[in-house]
């Protein structure tokens, strides 16, 4: 579904990705783990075409990704600020979810909304609260729910566990597994929290200073300290 071939990405003189090649097959959860500054966010952004790879290719279903204006792929840069979480802080939870359904014309809104409530019951209890008044973990849930309403085919998740209470982290990882199992959605998950990510991933890669230094099934990498 997604293939990176020898991808290099530069910020001026800094080379943040130094020849990354990887494949994501349809229906998989693939995780990229690595320390702060390893290039994880850059990798997800390069997949979406900004910044562009200075060398190498990103192919989505065999075609150059930068030429595909598509809602098939959603990159949830949900790790940083409330803005980065891709929610509208002044809008209610319900309004945020409605915005998520805009790319599909709202055709499946009611039915998809029920699925989001099943995944994240907390959101249902807070429907008329403003997004900005939710806790960090709840905002994360809202961001994921909102992304699902666009019915993407590939979901890119940037450190969904960062800065979130452990109990909500558990719920978010559980929901990621459910989304993959029930909806068959392909997920590329970038994480510093290696243990949690590898536990749910079909396959994983370790990224260190812009290079993939290890690859294996989630289990293999967990066994490898
Ligand atoms: P991670 O997501 O793994 O923490 P990043 O992809 O954010 O890593 O960063 C990889 C490297 O690229 C780091 O050395 C970082 O300082 C650098 N970098 C990231 N964004 C920029 C930018 N906009 N301009 C210059 N350097 C950047
Ligand atoms: P319908 O037949 O009315 O289009 P389905 O429930 O059969 O709706 O789903 C159609 C496709 O959309 C399926 O591949 C399903 O996995 C996917 N899908 C349904 N709901 C969601 C959702 N909330 N997020 C992502 N994909 C979804």
TrEMBL record:
SMART domains: AAA. It holds the Pfam family ABC_tran. Belongs to the ABC transporter superfamily. It comes from Benzoatithermus flavus. This is ABC transporter ATP-binding protein. It comes from the Bacteria. Residues 2-225 form the ABC transporter domain. One of its GO terms (molecular function) is ATP binding. Keywords: Amino-acid transport, ATP-binding, Nucleotide-binding, Transport.
């Amino acid at each position: 579904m997604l293939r990176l071939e020898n991808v290099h990405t530069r910020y001026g003189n800094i080379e943040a990705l130094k020849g990354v090649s990887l494949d994501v097959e349809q229906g998989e959860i693939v995780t990229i783990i690595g320390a702060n500054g390893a290039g994880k966010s850059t990798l997800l952004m390069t997949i979406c075409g900004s910044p562009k790879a200075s060398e190498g290719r990103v192919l989505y279903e065999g075609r150059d990704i930068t030429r595909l204006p598509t809602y098939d792929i959603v990159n949830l840069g949900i790790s940083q600020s409330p803005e980065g979480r891709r929610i509208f802080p002044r809008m209610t939870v319900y309004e945020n979810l409605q915005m998520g359904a805009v790319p599909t014309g709202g055709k499946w809104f009611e039915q998809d909304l029920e699925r989001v409530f099943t995944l994240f019951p907390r959101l249902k209890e807070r429907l008329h609260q403003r997004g900005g008044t939710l806790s960090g973990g709840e905002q994360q849930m809202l961001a994921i729910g909102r992304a699902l309403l666009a019915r993407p085919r590939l979901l890119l998740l940037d450190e969904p566990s960062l800065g979130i209470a452990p109990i909500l982290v558990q719920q978010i990882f559980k929901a990621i597994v459910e989304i993959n199992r029930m909806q068959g959605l392909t997920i590329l998950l970038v994480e510093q929290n290696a243990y949690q990510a590898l536990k749910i991933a079909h396959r994983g890669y370790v990224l260190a200073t812009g290079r993939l230094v290890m690859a294996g099934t989630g289990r293999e990498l967990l066994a490898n300290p």
